[in-house]
Amino acid sequence: MNTKFLKLTLLALVLFTASCSNDDNETVVAETETVSNLEAPSTASGYTKFSFSKNAVVTTDDWDIAFRGTTILVNGGVKGSDATEPARTGQGAVSIVSDIFANVTTVPANETFKQDTATLYAIPTGGGNGWYTYNVVGLHIIAPIAGKVFVVKTHDGKYAKFEVLSYYKDAPAEPNYMTSVAGYYKFNFAYQANSNTTF
């Protein structure tokens, strides 16, 4: 009788432990946040560094992406020749996905992630290869490319995704190069704080 009771007690303990472990590893859906009017400084002013985990601009080395004009850096890889670039102190990288933001629910394969190099950025600038197009004739507007999502491995190895919505202050629906103030990012992001590879 005591042996049977002991076996049942051990079985209950194993099941309880397993259920607790599953709770710890449970997928948590990352909430989408919106950042508005993040100022990207002029060429001579350095970069604005942003942390996904803090949802804030930072001045320390725990940044994930950094902005200057139309250039976006990741905190991983090699610093270029530009003296105003922040040092790459993290393991950051980025994978570019062509899809709707809400549809990007899993982290892409490791081999698709790239880091900044001394001569090439992981997020290219201009020409429609990166995050924007530029209308040279007439409008002279920097326009984010719809359906371009950037999945970021953060400086400390977690994951976030973001999409740029606007490059102009207060995100006007129809920017005007004569009146709209450039160099102010609006973007959506979702950050997975528990190292899961799903959003």
UniProtKB/TrEMBL annotation:
Record's signal peptide: 1-23
Family matches, as InterPro entries: HmuY (IPR025921)
UniProt entry tagged with the keyword Signal: yes
Protein's UniProt keywords contain Heme: no
Pfam families noted in UniProt: HmuY
Origin superkingdom: Bacteria
Keywords, ordered alphabetically: Signal
Name listed for the protein in its UniProt record: HmuY protein
Record organism: Flavobacterium seoulense
